[in-house]
Design goal:
alpha/beta; about 190 residues; two-stranded antiparallel ribbon; about 15% strand; 3 domains
């Protein structure tokens, strides 16, 4: 079978399949025309696919949505005939780059394919960086629902930025007020006769 057909059958990009061929992970040969033919006995590569579903919501109030989001992703994977190794559900902001469950998923080299419902479920910013780095490792991240309208993505990103900056700004003000309150208390404590 052609390398492009092989890539489709195992659910990876042509480039990833080409890297596997060049590194010797899959057996095949290159014809004088440049076409790469993969031997039919490469079914072991199909079995090596380890699929993880990642669902995320921003707050605990949306827990019901978290469960239904994970369910939809599981159904999607089952419809594609993929066996799911794990389902990860996380509550946290898409702007937060310290989400422990998502970071552990990205760091786990045994997970070859990550499935998310929307790009922003993985991250609000820098999705292309994550996608590119995973591809370089022979891994992939698949987005089930790509935004049909680029404006929707931009509006969501703008709201996320404003929310993030507001939280930081008000959080800093609160911390500043707390520090000022501690200083006043210490000053009053020092003024009282001992």
């Amino acid at each position: 079978m052609k390398l492009s057909d092989y890539a489709k059958s195992v659910g990876v990009t042509y480039r990833t399949a080409w890297q596997w061929f060049k590194s010797g992970k899959i057996n095949g040969y290159q014809m004088p025309t440049g076409t790469i033919i993969i031997n039919e006995n490469n079914t072991e590569q199909k079995q090596q696919r380890v699929v993880a579903v990642y669902a995320r919501v921003s707050s605990s109030e949306n827990r019901n949505n978290l469960d239904s989001q994970a369910e939809r992703l599981v159904c999607y994977c089952e419809a594609k005939g993929w066996q799911i190794s794990r389902v990860i559900k996380e509550v946290g902001s898409g702007v937060n780059d310290g989400r422990k469950l998502f970071l552990s998923l990205l760091a786990d080299p045994t997970v070859t394919h990550i499935v998310v419902e929307h790009k922003d479920r993985a991250t609000r910013f820098g999705f292309s960086y994550i996608d590119t780095l995973l591809k370089q490792c022979g891994r992939s991240i698949e987005v089930v629902n790509l935004a049909e309208d680029g404006k929707a993505d931009l509006v969501d990103d703008l709201v996320a930025v404003i929310y993030s900056f507001s939280a930081r700004m008000y959080g800093q003000r609160r911390a500043k007020r707390k520090t000022e309150q501690i200083i006043r208390h210490l000053q009053h404590g020092n003024e009282e006769p001992g």
